[in-house]
Prior knowledge:
Number of strands: 20
Distance between the termini: 58 Å
Amino acid sequence: xxxxxxxxxxEATRPMGSVRDLLTAPLIDVDEDGAVWARTRDMRxxxxxNGTTIxxxxxxxxxxxxxxxFDVTQVVRGCAILDTAVTxxxxxQDGVVTTNHADFREVHxxxxxxxxxxxxxxxxxxxxxxxxxxxVETELEPIVHGDELMFGHGHFGSVSxxxxxxxxxxxxxxxxxxxxxxxxxxxxxxxTFLA
Length: 195
């Protein structure tokens, strides 16, 4: 705080910039409910047992917040249904937020300008393609342009959900299909890669 305090101390006044200008690293904290909060240059994010909620920072002219909530609703491989139940509160270490699901981990790498969402599977049930569905809840308008998927407001800005890739333990990497259904983002890892 700047100015004069009740105890008579006076601190030097310095010009205040926006949070975006002042951040040199993401800010991450855990609240009393066990939810993890992160602040990057252009968004705040909340990670809890109900999913991940992004709050884009659209500036003081925006009349309200425009959250975008992502929640894993289904993971299947062929006829096998993987258990998506969250098994505890998210944990955070060195800018990495991890949520444990029964059959996989959901890992978010929080950077200054973006948050990378990753799903980590140690083993797979079933055979065939791996299909993961993320339900999306927001008042923002879904916008699909080729490979681009955004949730935007015509005047204030947008949140972009990037392209999807799969990476194995040996470092092999491949782009995968990311589809917008109108309610969900569906990621498909082909059987040929999993084999």
